[in-house]
Design a protein that fits this description.
The chain has about 220 residues and is an alpha+beta fold. The chain has two domains: about 45 residues; about 150 residues, Porin (Beta Barrel). Helix content is about 20%, strand content about 55%. It contains two helices and ten strands; from the N terminus they run ααββββββββββ. The radius of gyration is 37 Å and the shape is globular. The N terminus is likely disordered.
Length: about 220
């Protein structure tokens, strides 16, 4: 009898252990699979090179913009309009440039201006057409991979219908080249055109924002 009771108690303990094992078996399997996945991920990360690691021979080298590379061509320009009840001014400035060496560009800069002053009555309106054509060598220094600071000195001719004259002109210019991640480049700049007229020298100040494509 004692053996039978002991056997029943042992059976109950065994069934309780089996029931407990079955109850937590799903959790155990889930934890096992999760541990396996984490271990596989860590092993893969340890065996593969980090994307942030620098390639051999590139440590300490500054990343430069492709915009200023030798052989790059740049085509663009700027447009401006200004009007009021008695005045209207329009300007178109196409540009084309070519990098003849690393960071060194030779550009042809053009400006065509139209100015109208006065009312609509006959004899009260004055129209002036002017423009210039300048050849400018410039140097572009990379500040970041997408930002360059530049300076240039252009020389060319300026024409104005106001006094019907053509004169020699020097145009120092400084500014920034801002790349957008595509081939587009924004170029805010400041220039001081110096026009040498007979018996007179005129100095102006111009702020421009140009847009161009580099390829």
């Amino acid at each position: 009898m004692n053996n039978a009771v002991r056997w029943c108690v042992d059976c109950r303990r065994l069934m309780a252990m089996i029931d407990s094992t079955c109850r937590y078996r799903s959790l155990f399997l889930a934890l096992t699979v999760l541990a396996g996945l984490v271990g596989a991920t860590n092993a893969s990360a340890a065996s593969s090179p980090s994307s942030n690691e620098e390639a051999p021979g590139t440590a300490g080298k500054e990343e430069e913009s492709v915009y200023s590379k030798k052989g790059t061509m740049e085509i663009g320009g700027n447009v401006s309009l200004d009007w009021s009840p008695n005045t209207f001014s329009g300007s178109v400035g196409p540009t084309i440039g070519y990098f003849v060496a690393e960071r060194v560009e030779i550009s042809a800069l053009f400006n065509f201006n139209y100015d109208r002053e006065g009312g609509d009555e006959v004899g009260t309106r004055t129209i002036t057409r002017s423009g210039d054509a300048v050849i400018e060598p410039s140097y572009h220094h990379p500040v970041t991979p997408t930002l360059l600071a530049f300076g240039g000195l252009g020389a060319g001719v300026e024409y104005s219908s106001g006094d019907d004259s053509t004169n020699f002109e020097l145009v120092p210019r400084v500014g920034l080249n801002i790349e957008t991640g595509t081939s587009a480049v924004f170029t805010p700049s400041f220039k001081l055109p110096v026009v040498f007229k007979p018996g007179n020298t005129e100095v102006g100040a111009v702020i421009e924002i140009g847009v161009s494509g580099a390829f």
